[in-house]
Structures are given as C-alpha cells and as structure tokens.
Amino acid sequence: MRPMNDLLSATGTTIFTVMSALATQHGAINLGQGFPDYDGPADVIEAAAAALKDGRNQYPPLTGVPELRQATAAHNRRFYGLEIDPDREVVVTSGATEAITACLMAVLNPGDECVLIEPLYDTYLPVVKLLGAVPKLVRLSPPKWELPRAELAAAFGPRTKAILINTPMNPTGKVFTAAELAFIAELVERHDAYAICDEVYEHLTYDGWRHIPLMTLPGMRGRCMRISSAGKTFSLTGWKIGMITCDASLQPNVAKAHQNLTFTTPPNLQRAVAVGLAKDDAYFDSIGQELAAKRDLLDAGLRALGFETLPVMGSYFVTADIRSIGFMGDDVAFCRTITEEAKVTAIPVTAFYAGADAPSHYARFAFCKNEAVLREALERLGSWIAARRPARAAAGD
Ligand code: PMP
Ligand code: GLN
User: Fold this and answer.
1) Domain at 42-281: CATH code
2) Which regions of the chain carry the CATH code 3.40.640.10?
3) Which pTM value belongs to this model?
4) Does 75 score more than 80 pLDDT?
C-alpha cells in the first residue's frame, strides 16, 4: 500500500486521550485531560433538551442559528465593548478546535509563515503544517512565562501571515498583560498580519486578572479572529460549540473554511448556548470564583506535599515542578508513574512543545473537579510520596 498522508502518519494520538485511557486502565483520578467532573448550568441543559423537541432538527444556517449569533454579538458588547454584526461577523463552529482550524485555513497559503507560541495546544502545529504553512516557534520560559519580546519581533518577517495566541493560556495558566498584547498588536499591524486568538478560557481568570481580547486593541478590530468555547464557559466540554468573532472582511473566508470542515453545528446545542450567553453577570463571576477555590485547594495541597507550583492566573491547570519532591525521571515518566502507582493522572508539559530541549520537569494538573475528588487525589499523592521516601533513603537519594 502507498503511504498515506505523511504528516498525519507521523502525528501521535493526542496526549489527552493517551493519559485518559491510562487513567481508566489503572483506576486513577483523572487530573489530566481538562474537563469538569460536574455538569454545566441546569437551565442551559434544560434549554438543550427543549430545543431537541420543537422540530428544529434539520441543517441550521451555515454560520450558526440567529439566536447564537445574536447572543455572541451581545456577549462581545457586554464584556469587551466590541460592536459586532451578528449576521456578518460571527461563525459558529463545532468547538474551538474546529474554529482554530477554520481560522488558520481562512488566512494561510502554502509557504506563509505563522508565528506560534510554545508551550502550545496540541492541534496548532499539525494544522499549520497540513496547510503547507511554515510555523515559526517562539518559546515562553517558566517560571514566569513572560513574552520574550526580541525573539517574538525576530520571528516576524516579510512572509509572516499570522500569529496564533492563546490567552488565558493552556497549559501555563498565564494571562497575557495589556503591555504584552500591545507589543503583539504593534507587530501584527507593522507586518500586515492576522491574529488568531484562542480565548477559550476567557471567563476562567483569578485573583483580579481580567482577560483582554487582542481584538479590542487599537488597529486590531479588522485583523483578529477571536475564538470562544461554550465547553469552557459553561462547563460542558462534550458539547463542542465554538464561536468565532471577526471583522466582516474576514468572515466570508472563515465561513467557507467551516463550510468545508463540518458545514454546520447541531442547532439544538447552539440554541442552548445562546441561553447560556444571556445569563446574568453573577453567573460569569461565579465560574471564576468557584474555579479559584479549586485552584487554591489543589495548589496549596500540592505545595504541602513538597511540590513547587507555578502561579495560575487563568485556565483549568496548575503546573508543578516534579523535581521538588525528588523525582528523578522526566515528566512523561512521572505522569505514567503516578497514574500506575498513586492512581492520580496528570499531563506531561513536554507534550505542549514541538522544539528540542523543552523543560521536562513539569506536570500539569487539572483542578476543574469536585473538591472531594481533589482532596482524594492529594491524599493518594501524599501516600505515594510517603511510601517512596524509605526507598529513596535506602538508595541514598
Ligand atoms: N484551545 C485550548 C487552549 C484548549 O485548551 C482547548 C481544550 N478544550 C480547546 C482549544 C478546544 O476547545 P473545544 O473543546 O471547544 O474544541
Ligand atoms: N483542552 C483539554 C486539555 O487541555 C483537552 C481537550 C482534548 O482532549 N482534546 O486538557
């Protein structure tokens, strides 16, 4: 048989699926893949159930049902002061995952350069490569994950067509500052480029950190494609409803990419997400507050066990330094070992790097779980660490 597509043949199964399968195999608490173990808001779920029964079950409009496009425009106005035309500036997709691919498809030609920031979410690089575009990687470094401005500026050149940024950022928990965004905006404008903005954690920020869409900065309205995810905003990750907001000059290509990927997205779930986006401010405040409490529990618990952890300003994830408890192997070995022995699963942070010499001493733990589950995971890790101590002492560590 002739070889199939080389890039896909060379791409492994996503780390999230690999670690979730390992967690199931070992009966481990899954703090790996980022999904809540609790349900989303009851009124949103009720709205979906009702929307299944009222006869609107055929193909919805290509760019999304009017209710959700209008709700997306209203959401942009309420939270970010963006005036969006629901008919000409929104495309609803089957999750942010599709949205990211659709936006990359909308702007990249083979040979165009696309700036990506490491550590990066696992779909970015394969999609850029499948489109025949050339990734230019710029790396953020722990523990502060600050934007290396000179390197970023150097990554832009005459062939740069786009940059993909993720804020709040997975897996680092970083929220880009206004100054960092202004620096990026200046580069985008100077190089006449586009920005694909993965903002799926837009409402999951902590300690007074506020998400700022790049699209709200001067000169950026017509260059950004801003991506939201109902999965994250409503703790319903299986629903796979994404919303793209972009200027009317960009939207036709984004819509045509969506037309060739999935064409449309289930109308019933779209209508329920519209109900969710209309929820009051108290709901949007509460998601961050509830997750901040979970973050605090897991972060303090890991620290009490001896892990050094990195600051988390947003997202579902806390990153822990595995060397600080004396673990001698790399992050992949650590995540496998704790799954098998402690019965707790995490994600190795090297999975978010494409280049060589990635830091290999960090594990990412998801805290979007019930507090009893987080406590049980900490207990298990504590027992595992305690049981290893005599062995390590005997080995002279
Ligand atoms: N981007 C980032 C940074 C993510 O963490 C995720 C994970 N959910 C996605 C995109 C995909 O979102 P969705 O489930 O809506 O496709
Ligand atoms: N975004 C989720 C995470 O980072 C996983 C999504 C997926 O499994 N593809 O854990």
Assistant:
1) 3.40.640.10
2) 42-281
3) 0.97
4) yes
